[in-house]
Amino acid sequence: MCIASNIMLLLLFSACCAYAYSNGAQLAACNTLTPLHENSTSQISRVPFTIDLDQFEVNGIYQYTPSKEYTLTISGPEDDYFKGFFVQSRLMSDDTTRVGVFAATDPNSRLSSCPKETDGVTHREEMEFKSMEMGWTAPPAGTGPIRFAFAIVHEFDEFWADQRTEMLEEGPATSKASGVTVSVLVLLLLAVLASLQF
Question: Which intervals hold domain Reelin (predicted)?
Answer without folding.
Answer: 15-181
